[in-house]
Amino acid sequence: MKQYRPLIFKTIGLILILFLTACAANQTATDPLPSWTDGASKQQIFDFVASVTNSDGSNFVPSNKRIATFDNDGTLWSEKPTYFQLLFITDRIRSMAADHPDWKTTQPFQAVLENDMETIKAAGEHGLIKLTMATHAGMTTEEFETIVNEWLATARHPSTGQAYNSMVFQPMLELLDYLRANDFKVFIVSGGSLEFMRPWTEAVYGIPPDQVVGSSFETRYELRDDKPVLVRLPELHFNNDKVTKPVAINRFIGQRPIFAAGNSDGDFEMLKWATSGEGERLGILVHHTDADREWAYDRESSEGRLVRGLDQADENGWLVVDMARDWQVIYPYQSVE
Amino acid sequence: MKQYRPLIFKTIGLILILFLTACAANQTATDPLPSWTDGASKQQIFDFVASVTNSDGSNFVPSNKRIATFDNDGTLWSEKPTYFQLLFITDRIRSMAADHPDWKTTQPFQAVLENDMETIKAAGEHGLIKLTMATHAGMTTEEFETIVNEWLATARHPSTGQAYNSMVFQPMLELLDYLRANDFKVFIVSGGSLEFMRPWTEAVYGIPPDQVVGSSFETRYELRDDKPVLVRLPELHFNNDKVTKPVAINRFIGQRPIFAAGNSDGDFEMLKWATSGEGERLGILVHHTDADREWAYDRESSEGRLVRGLDQADENGWLVVDMARDWQVIYPYQSVE
């Protein structure tokens, strides 16, 4: 029997090759980015991927070095009227208020309870930290995960009425899939906090918890009835924004990305870091230009402020995606024409 | 043509199933852990993997939750006469000494130059930090990677004469492969520093840089001639040891492992964290019992000190691997009988 094996394997191998060729031919026929308008932006993405995956070309990148990083707020999902994590915080403050009667007369808690978003924003980073610590610390990591999941299951966006994690960008979901189909390893690198994202990124983006990089809190290992828990402490461990994004990429991922996508000046250094390496690179900035279907904002916005990115995209060779022009669909719950 | 496709696909599908079944049958016949002695330890590993991968069983764990964490020093490679990273440090001090004439009369540098390992160890953590900062900071991340690679290519272990990253444990390489073949995602969680491990863990262990968790230094993003670099600063960012290993696991991996392997009390909390979750879990302690082929040490050792682990392994249900009894081969460069 044994001497026939190689022939059998060769035959099966040949059939496999034919099968895979058929699959590949089939894939070429299907547009992997159907929600992207045919045009220069989409073509630039195709050209980049074709270039780094062509093993005969001078720009070939082996699959274990195909690292792609995506910002989250404003890049993979919306961030208006304000960052969804801030809306989570204000919802939490309201639901915890009964146990904290002093909040009625203490800022910035009072502003939250009175739905006074201007005062909340005016309280600045200091106020935000107070609100964040009151809602993100003092429980175990598992308890916090439950809180996030319950909020996502019930909270609805004030203007669309949708669940927050339905308001992700269909074109970016397709881009994530397209990169993965070409053996990229895809990471989130967000200013949002790790444990606000990880409960849902795998289901929504296909990005597992260990491929999510973000801001983080200090935690403490403790035994409770001989069972270990991690307690979340009211102390920021790492703020992942601007110049610290490359620092976090290096610490968590350990390789320089060859692709990075963002939408604000908070992503400037990440794109700079990714696109300054040797060989072919792609940096993408999502420009929010669609007041009808999403929001239109850039230089003056308190969320996703984009000034340096717009001014220096050309000289850095970055692709500025014009949402109104380049995206035929915004959210998955809207149908493709 | 099109109407024949389904039939063709069915036929190919059937052949594929036969082919895969043949492969699976072939694998069952081949021992995935050939360097492990047949016996209770090996069987316990097989039973655990069979249990969590059996989709009909009550202990089934879906593949995206099959997280395994391994300590490095003393678990995946040797750590005698002292931690290999400390030997890297002392080699670096010697090769940098010409530019630092004051080191001849300044401790602990003087002790290194005089090869006085006792004084180095006696200088304790404070002395070690001085030596570490002098050798691990002040360069870019890329420069440091080159330094590590050059050292590994040329340095040889004082007693075996082997390259340090040849002194990895063959049985553990097999265990890493076996877990991966069963769809585990495998991570290193080590007290060693990230950038001392990442240049070689993928080639040696098959573990990519982003699946290496370790101690880390502060780094700073800087532009040099408009090119970004990350500069390593003489400041520890995170010391990954004992109670902070679960903290790092949570921060980097974001899921609780169902499998953890270590060899010292520095791994105690990692094993406790991994094995205290719901469902079937496995914690392994490698016990260094082989003075002939490797080293024998536990309670009194300054490297890999193991006291609590030995005392509490039974009550925690941890498997203590007896290196002399359970491992037929230690290093890959030794042949299997």
How would you describe what is shown here?
The structure is a homodimer of 337-residue chains. Helix content of chain A is 43%, strand content 15%. Chain A has 337 residues and is an alpha/beta fold. Chain A has a 7-stranded mixed β-sheet, sandwiched between helices. The longest helix of chain A is centred in the N-terminal third of the chain and has 25 residues, at 5-29. The radius of gyration of chain A is 23 Å and the shape is globular. The model of chain A has no long low-confidence stretch (mean pLDDT 93). Chain A binds chain B through residues 12, 15-16, 18-19, 64, 67, 141, 185, 187, 194-195, 198, 202, 208-212, 216, 219-221, 227-228, 230, 237, 243-244, 246-247, 250-255, 269, 272-273, 276, and chain B through 12, 15-16, 19, 64, 67, 141, 185, 187, 194-195, 198, 202, 208-212, 216, 219-221, 227-228, 230, 237, 243-244, 246-247, 250-255, 269, 272-273, 276.
Search tags:
homodimer; 337 residues; alpha/beta; 13 helices; 7 strands; 15% strand; globular
Order of helices and strands of chain A: HHEHHHHHHEHEEHEHEHEH
Q: End-to-end span of chain A in angstroms?
A: 57 Å
The main sheet of chain A orders its strands as 4-3-2-1-5-6-7
Total helix count of chain A? Answer: 13
Q: What is the helix content of chain A?
A: 40-55%
Q: What is the multimeric organization of the chains shown? A: homodimer
Radius of gyration of chain A: 23 Å
Overall structural class of chain A, as computed from helix and strand content, comes to: alpha/beta
Mind summarizing the main beta sheet of chain A?
7 strands, mixed
